[in-house]
């Protein structure tokens, strides 16, 4: 199978073919999603929640994410692997942003990086791209800024409509190969998708973006808690695991496991 490259994503936009993207953080999930033909896998800073058990994305560090990125890149044959730059690892300066992106490429062997931010981060995107590293931007609701944005709120309504559109144009102009639109109105997402030549990747951004991304534990129900409205549950892995663990426990307690077929003499 041929590796997915950033130009393939652009070509799918030109052909009007929507494409899927999922998060992945370990070897088995990465190889399953690769086999399923998911062209882009994101090792998101959502690992802060989904792997490390924090309640926001803010605490996760570069040193915690790099081993996950390496596990995913090692495990795919075809998918393009994007590494998310965590909070604090690129906001300080353009130089810091390039140095962090280089670590993800060198130590994590990522194929691209992603960062949250619009116009203000255009110089960072331009510098990382100039270093030979493809950048996916992320605008609209940006979870690393939740305290500044006032919580999980839909963006692109009323007063910040122009900000989201301006951010989209700025990250394209800075050289981003794609842009995530998170929790923006379907109307704004549709307009941005029409105006940009680079692919838009929606999450809670309606049906008209060029691609759709979800966090895999949310869409497969490993996360058994409440999921946001934009998540569709495609499986119920959480309850399958609960059932298997419970049955194992019962069989051990009831002297039913191991049976003769699991036993050496
Ligand atoms: O960290 C993440 O999982 C993300 C996606 C939801 C876009 O940024
Ligand atoms: Na993220």
From TrEMBL:
Sites where the protein binds Mg(2+): 45, 84, 116
Reactions that this protein is recorded to catalyse: (6R)-5,10-methylene-5,6,7,8-tetrahydrofolate + 3-methyl-2-oxobutanoate + H2O = 2-dehydropantoate + (6S)-5,6,7,8-tetrahydrofolate
Cofactor: Mg(2+)
Pathway: Cofactor biosynthesis; (R)-pantothenate biosynthesis; (R)-pantoate from 3-methyl-2-oxobutanoate: step 1/2
InterPro entries per UniProt: Pantoate_hydroxy_MeTrfase, Pyrv/PenolPyrv_kinase-like_dom, Pyrv_kinase-like_dom_sf
Entry keyword Cytoplasm: yes
Main location: cytoplasm
Cofactor note: Binds 1 Mg(2+) ion per subunit.
Binding site for 3-methyl-2-oxobutanoate: 45-46, 84, 114
CDD domains: KPHMT-like
Alphabetical list of Pfam families matching this protein: Pantoate_transf (PF02548)
Gene3D superfamilies (UniProt xref): Phosphoenolpyruvate-binding domains
Residues annotated as catalytic: 182
Subcellular location: Cytoplasm
UniProt EC number: 2.1.2.11
Keywords linked to the UniProt accession: Cytoplasm, Magnesium, Metal-binding, Pantothenate biosynthesis, Transferase
Coiled coil residues, start to end: none
PANTHER family with a match to the protein in the record: 3-METHYL-2-OXOBUTANOATE HYDROXYMETHYLTRANSFERASE
Function, as annotated: Catalyzes the reversible reaction in which hydroxymethyl group from 5,10-methylenetetrahydrofolate is transferred onto alpha-ketoisovalerate to form ketopantoate.
UniProt record similarity statement: Belongs to the PanB family.
Subunit structure: Homodecamer; pentamer of dimers.
Protein name stated in the entry: 3-methyl-2-oxobutanoate hydroxymethyltransferase
């Amino acid at each position: 199978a041929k590796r997915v490259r950033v130009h393939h994503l652009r070509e799918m936009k030109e052909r009007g073919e929507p494409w899927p993207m999922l998060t992945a953080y370990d070897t088995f999930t990465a190889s399953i999603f690769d086999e399923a033909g998911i062209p882009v896998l994101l090792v998101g800073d959502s690992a802060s929640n989904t792997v490390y058990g924090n309640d926001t994305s803010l605490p996760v560090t570069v040193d915690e994410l790099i081993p996950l990125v390496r596990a995913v890149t090692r495990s795919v044959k075809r998918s393009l692997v994007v590494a998310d730059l965590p909070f604090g690892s690129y906001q300080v300066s353009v130089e810091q942003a390039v140095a962090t992106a280089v670590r993800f490429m060198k130590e994590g062997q990522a194929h691209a990086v992603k960062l949250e931010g619009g116009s203000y981060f255009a110089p960072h995107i331009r510098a990382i791209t100039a270093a030979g590293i493809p950048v996916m931007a992320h605008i609209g609701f940006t979870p690393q800024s939740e305290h500044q944005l006032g919580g999980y709120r839909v963006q692109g309504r009323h007063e910040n409509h122009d900000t989201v559109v301006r951010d989209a144009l700025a990250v394209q102009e800075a050289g981003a190969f794609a842009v995530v639109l998170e929790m923006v109105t379907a109307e704004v997402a549709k307009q941005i998708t029409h105006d940009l030549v680079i692919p838009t990747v929606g999450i809670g951004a309606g049906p008209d973006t060029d691609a759709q991304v979800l966090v895999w534990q949310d869409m497969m129900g490993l996360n058994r808690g409440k999921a946001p409205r934009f998540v569709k549950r495609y499986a119920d892995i959480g309850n399958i695991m609960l059932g298997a663990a419970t049955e194992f426990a019962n069989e051990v307690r009831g002297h039913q496991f191991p049976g003769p077929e699991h036993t050496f003499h």
